[in-house]
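in:
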């Protein structure tokens, strides 16, 4: 039960087998088991000559590399205890760890060497400092390679017991009292033996070393397990995704142990390509994925590896096992990758348990579970609640000896041989463990309800627009309210040509909240610009996210940082121009929407203002793909260095100019003002049938339709709460008016090959105002100028709760610039019939109430807030009229 003895047993079985390999100068260098043993014994000899005795400590601070396991084994052979440390360590942490552990020897990488050079006081209590991959000639310093070349192997090894400490793992070195976890040879070896009893590992496996070895998860899974079974470990130079994939292919990796973030990325790359396929291809592929999943999950036959061989070849056709750990694995990622034929599994453990406690076998498909306890390890739930959730207690040979020199802390977590994990979870009737949260992270509302943030985050991450999410509580008066810090997936936004990030995220949160109990609803959210802070194993540092949010909130009212002096004069002028036009301070790093509130309408207006600034006409998409002020400055600078694209005399200077422009041919083809006789018959038949369906199923009632003008132009402005609203308005119009009314329809639905043939006779214009606002405005203008009627939902989206949301000013622009009247309409009952979050419609009465036509001048005259944009005044006015129909005087 000694780590180095177990390694020697493997070496005696496979002396000439490849143990370690790494790439150097575009070639893979190989080190056999016997060579690793020889080099480790040289390290042991060096340590013993320098008076390192059993029980002494040696610190190892390095990135993953071939030397890391050799050094660790050398320390084990010498009888000493190794202290692996995060290579991103700071000087203060090194000081604290050296002081607490009283280490005499330290092994460091070149990056850490720079810290020692700058702070020579770190050297004072050390006998020797060994630098990996670097020749050094300073006092106390020696190069790793020099030891390997000059020293003999140690033949006489000190006798130690399995209870001797193998590692002390500091879970925090940032305070003056760091906490070291004491793991013995017996703890580590026992845990590996428990893992091997699952028979998931094979002697010919090739492991890629991605995760940092200073952490017990990577240490056990990608160092001890292969060393005890005769496997090969492949090291990489960077964590670049492309290099990882290349290495997997080149070296025929069979086992990849990583964190959920890695598998999330793999999942995203695969499914982004699938969803970018055409409608039929996409759905055929998804159908095949589900069929393969059904067969694998129910009959144990892995067809996915054959059917989706192309995907497997892209990642590495020899990959046998993908193992996730360190943080919670998304259930959808777990299921989808397994359906595709990958054997993705996960487990649970802590540093204090050496670390693996449970493991989900590849043959066991249990979404959300971390598996059953390993053979020889016991778990139980302490004080379970009604759901069976309680603190997870662990007993077994893998449980640590305690915290280094901290009996007080040890006694708090080990009682009657049970380790109190601090994690909450439950065990199902079949013995599978499910983790719900850390005790410290549970949010307890004033009502007494317990909320597990991980569960809510998992729901939020179902949205492709949300890349990362962190949920925490904020005080809202006397109550606690849930807040979500959201990192949007900007690349996905760009791919979908979405620019209204705030609006879209709010929409997604409202939709996803429908799947949660009321007390779990997100009450507020903030958009993050940078990835959320995480541990090296991918766990979100929730308290840091919350602290950062509170700090930003505190300083939000303060004046923005002035533009850095290093900016060019031209850039400063652009920032001054933006500040003047937007009437607010602008910083070079500001996000156009998140910081400056520039939505799709404001972007178009900004382009008009930029035209005057640049003295040339700009394409409407000039800033369509721009997200920050810095991006905008770069594009303007590029533009100014080119010849003007069009004559300055043809500049668009206002919304009126935009609306008067000739309609794009592609959009014009989507609009048919006059119907053929056949189309009239189809139109009458389909709308009559639709009316009959609404009358029978939703008992539709129509009020005040006699107030509608017979002829256009005018704009119908209803509230929007359901998929049914457009159809409800269409069939509520008198037939003579219905023939003249046009509607916008999302291209995803109405340009679909199955129903696109019906667009023209149903008077639907397939266009997305969010992605092609100018085109939508010009299409509406074209319809209205031809004395037709346009139905526009000014909210721009369906309401999440049935209440009327704010109206966007686009309807105000059309009303004023084209001088057309607005007709308010209130649709009652459609939210209950088929509101957001409901998969299928249900029978519920719907009533459509038409109001009296209103001119835009009426709203302008009644305006009591002159500072508001006049277009927005008109939009607000027609919204008030819609609400009055809901609650008439």
């Amino acid at each position: 039960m000694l780590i180095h003895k177990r390694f020697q047993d493997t070496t005696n079985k496979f002396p000439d087998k490849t143990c370690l390999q790494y790439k150097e100068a575009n070639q893979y260098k190989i080190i056999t088991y016997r060579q690793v043993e020889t080099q480790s014994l040289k390290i042991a000899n060096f340590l013993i000559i320098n008076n390192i005795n059993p029980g002494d400590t040696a610190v190892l601070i390095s990135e993953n590399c071939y030397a890391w396991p050799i050094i660790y084994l050398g320390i084990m052979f010498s009888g000493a205890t190794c202290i692996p440390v995060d290579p991103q360590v700071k000087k203060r942490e090194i000081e604290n760890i050296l002081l607490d552990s009283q280490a005499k020897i330290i092994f460091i990488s070149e990056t850490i060497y720079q810290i020692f050079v700058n702070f020579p006081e770190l050297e004072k209590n050390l006998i020797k400092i060994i630098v990996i991959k670097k020749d050094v000639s300073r006092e106390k310093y020696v190069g790793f390679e020099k030891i390997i070349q000059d020293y003999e192997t140690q033949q006489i090894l000190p006798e130690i017991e399995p209870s001797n400490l193998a590692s002390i793992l500091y879970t925090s070195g940032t305070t003056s009292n760091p906490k070291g976890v004491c793991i013995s040879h017996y703890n580590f070896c026992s845990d590996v033996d428990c893992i091997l009893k699952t028979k998931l590992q094979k002697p010919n496996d090739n492991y890629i070393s991605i995760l940092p070895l200073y952490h017990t998860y990577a240490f056990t899974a990608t160092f001890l397990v292969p060393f005890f079974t005769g496997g090969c470990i492949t090291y990489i130079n960077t964590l670049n995704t492309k290099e990882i994939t290349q290495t997997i292919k080149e070296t025929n990796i069979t086992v990849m142990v990583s964190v959920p973030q890695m598998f999330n990325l793999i999942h995203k790359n695969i499914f982004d390509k699938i969803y970018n396929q055409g409608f039929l291809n996409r759905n055929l592929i998804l159908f095949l994925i589900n069929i393969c999943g059904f067969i694998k999950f129910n009959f144990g036959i892995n067809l996915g590896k054959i059917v989706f061989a192309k995907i497997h070849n892209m990642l590495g056709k020899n990959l046998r096992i993908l193992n996730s750990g360190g943080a919670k694995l998304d259930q959808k990622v777990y299921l989808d990758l397994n359906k595709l034929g990958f054997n993705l599994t996960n487990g649970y453990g802590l540093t204090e348990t050496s670390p693996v406690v449970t493991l989900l076998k590849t043959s066991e498909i249990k979404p959300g579970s971390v598996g059953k306890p390993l053979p020889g390890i016991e778990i139980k739930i302490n004080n379970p609640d009604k759901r069976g959730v309680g603190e997870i207690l662990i007993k077994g040979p893998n449980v640590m000896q305690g915290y280094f020199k901290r009996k007080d802390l040890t006694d708090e977590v080990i009682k009657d041989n049970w380790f109190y994990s601090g994690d909450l979870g439950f065990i199902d009737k079949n013995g599978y463990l499910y983790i719900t949260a850390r005790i410290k992270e549970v949010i307890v509302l004033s009502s007494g309800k317990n909320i597990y943030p991980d569960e809510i985050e998992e729901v939020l991450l179902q949205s492709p627009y949300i890349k990362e999410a962190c949920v925490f509580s904020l005080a809202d008066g006397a109550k606690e309210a849930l807040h979500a810090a959201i990192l949007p997936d900007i690349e996905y936004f760009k791919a979908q040509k979405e620019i209204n990030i705030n609006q879209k995220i709010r929409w997604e949160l409202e939709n996803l909240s429908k799947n949660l109990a009321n007390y779990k609803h997100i009450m507020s959210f903030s958009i993050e610009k940078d990835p959320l802070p995480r541990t090296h194993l991918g766990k979100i540092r929730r308290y840091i996210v919350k602290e950062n949010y509170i700090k930003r909130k505190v300083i939000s009212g303060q004046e923005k940082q002035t533009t850095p002096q290093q900016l060019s004069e031209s850039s400063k002028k652009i920032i001054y121009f933006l500040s003047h036009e937007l009437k607010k301070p602008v910083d070079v790093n500001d996000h156009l929407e998140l910081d400056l509130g520039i939505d799709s309408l404001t972007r178009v207006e900004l382009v008009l203002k930029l035209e005057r600034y640049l003295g040339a006409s700009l394409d409407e998409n000039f800033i369509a793909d721009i997200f920050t002020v810095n991006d905008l400055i770069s594009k303007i600078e590029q533009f100014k260095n080119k010849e003007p694209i069009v004559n300055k005399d043809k500049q668009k200077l206002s919304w009126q100019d935009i609306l008067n422009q000739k309609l794009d041919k592609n959009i014009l083809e989507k609009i048919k003002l006059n119907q053929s006789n056949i189309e009239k018959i189809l139109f009458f038949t389909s709308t009559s049938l639709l009316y009959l369906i609404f009358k029978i199923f939703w008992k539709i009632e129509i009020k005040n339709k006699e107030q509608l003008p017979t002829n256009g132009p005018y704009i119908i402005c209803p509230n929007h709460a359901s998929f049914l609203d457009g159809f409800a308005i269409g069939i509520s119009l008198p037939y003579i008016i219905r023939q003249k009314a046009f509607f916008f329809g999302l291209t995803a639905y109405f340009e679909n090959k199955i129903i696109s043939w019906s667009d023209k006779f149903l008077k639907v214009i397939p266009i997305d105002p969010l992605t092609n606002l100018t085109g939508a405005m010009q299409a509406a203008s074209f319809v209205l100028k031809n004395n037709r009627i346009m139905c526009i939902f000014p909210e721009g989206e369906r309401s999440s709760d049935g209440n009327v949301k704010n109206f966007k000013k686009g309807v105000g622009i059309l009303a004023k610039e084209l001088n057309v009247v607005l007709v308010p309409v209130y649709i009652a009952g459609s939210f209950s019939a088929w509101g957001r979050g409901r998969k299928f419609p249900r029978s519920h009465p719907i009533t459509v109430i038409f109001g009296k036509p209103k001119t835009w001048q009426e709203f302008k005259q009644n305006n009591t807030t002159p500072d508001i944009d006049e277009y927005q005044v008109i939009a607000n006015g027609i919204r008030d009229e819609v609400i009055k129909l809901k609650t008439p005087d």
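note: The chain has 34 helices and 34 strands.
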